[in-house]
Specification:
This protein has 11 helices and 27 strands. It is α/β, with parallel strands linked by helices. Helix 1 packs antiparallel against helix 2, helix 6 packs across helix 7 and helix 9 crosses helix 10. The radius of gyration is 22 Å and the shape is globular.
Length: 464
Amino acid sequence: MKTYIQDIERALYDVRDEDKSIYKSDAGLTEEVVRDISARKNDPPWMLEFRLKSLETYRKISLPTWGADISELNMDEIITYVKPNAKQVDDWSQVPDEIKNTFDRLGIPDAEKKSLAGVGAQYDSEVVYHSIQKRLTDQGVVYTDMETALVEHEDIVREYFMTLVPPKDHKFAALHGAVWSGGSFVYVPAGVDVKIPLQSYFRLNAAGAGQFEHTLIIVEPGAKLHFIEGCSAPRYNVTNLHAGCVELFVKEGARLRYSTIENWSRNMMNLNTKRALVEKNGLIEWVSGSFGSHVSMLYPCSVLHGEGARAEFTGVTFAGRGQNLDTGAIVVHAAPKTSANINTRTISKSGGAATYRSAVKVTKNAPFAKCSVNCESLMLDDESRSDTLPVMDIEGDEADIGHEAKIGRISEDAVFYLMTRGISEDEARAMIVRGFVEPIAKELPLEYAVEMNNLINLELEGQL
C-alpha cells in the first residue's frame, strides 16, 4: 500500500470558454505588433515611444541562464494581444454571459458582495468589469484599469510607470514594456485607511496567448491598503505565457498588504515581476500562494529605501507532476534600521520540483539592518525535488541577518503516533501536511479569494 497526496483539483479552473475574441494580434513580437497594440489602446505618443524602446531593449537582452528551464518558450508562437468580445462595465449583469459565467464559477461576484470594497476582472488582454464603493471615491481613492488611468491620471502614470521595474531589468520586463495591456491602478491619498480589500482577478482563456497586465499602486503617507490578486487559466496543449508587472510605492508611514493567489494551468510559463519601494517607517506585506503553471520564476522584491522601512514576505508553493516552480523573495536594505522577515513553505510531489531562491542585500547605507529568512520544504515522495538557494550580500558590519532552512519528508513516527490515537493513516498524513502549511495558509485571504479554498485543501488517500 502506497500513500500519496493528490494534485490540487483543477476541474473548476480548466473549464474552457469558446473563443469569441474579436481581435488577436499576429503571433510573435515585431514592431508592427507593438504599434498595432498601441494604436488599439489609443496610447499617448510617449507611451508608444516607451513601447518601441522596450522592444529594442528586449532584442538586446539574452534569456536568463539560471533558474527554471524555459527553453520550451517560443515567442514567435505567442499571441501578445487578445481582445474579448466585451466592453468594460461597472454592472455585473452587463458582462457577456460566457465571460460572466466564468467569473461566477470562480466566485468573484459573490466575494465582492461579501467582503470586497472594489473588484476588477480582466479577461485575456482587457479589463471587462470594474467597480469601487462610493465611500472610497469620496475619500479620494482611485481604483481603475491602467488604460483609464493613462487617460484620467496621465501625469501620475507617467511619473511612476516602469520606474521601479525598468525594461532593462531583464528580458521579460522589456517584453512587458512593449506589449503590456490591462491591469490595475490604485491611488490611496495620505491618511486614508481602506479597511476592506480591493481585488483584481486575471483570467487568460485564449490558447497560445500571453497576458501582460500592469499593476501600479501608490499608497501615500500614513495610508493603508490590502490588495488581492487572483490568476487562473484553463489547460491547453500549447504554451501560454504570463509576464505581468507589479510596481508598489509605499510612502512614509504607509502600509500595504499585497496578497496573490496564482493558479495558472500546467501549460503556463509564469515569468512575472513584482517590486515594492518602501519609504521611511513604511511596511510592505507580501502574501503569496503559487499552485499552478508548468514553470514559474517569481521573486517579489522589497526595496527598503527609508529609515525604519519594513518588509514581510509569507509564501507557500505546491509543485506537482510536470511543474518546476522557482520562487522566493528579494530584500534590499538601503537605509538605516530597516527590517525584514521572509517565511516560506514549499511542497513537492510526483516528480515536481520546488526551488526556494532568495537574495538579501544590505548596503553600506543600512546600518542596524535586520533580516530573518526561514524556508521549509516538504517532499512527499522520492521522485520529487526541493532546493534552497539563499544569497546574502552584506556590505556593512552592523547588520543582524539570519537564515534557516529545513528540507524533509513526512515523519513516519508522527504518522504512527496519530494512528495510535484512533486516526486513520490517510487522515494522519493529511493532518501533517495541513499543519505544515498552516502558518502560511492562515495569512492567505481565504475569506476574500474564494478559489483558494480548493487550492490548499490537500487530500490524502491510499492507492494500490
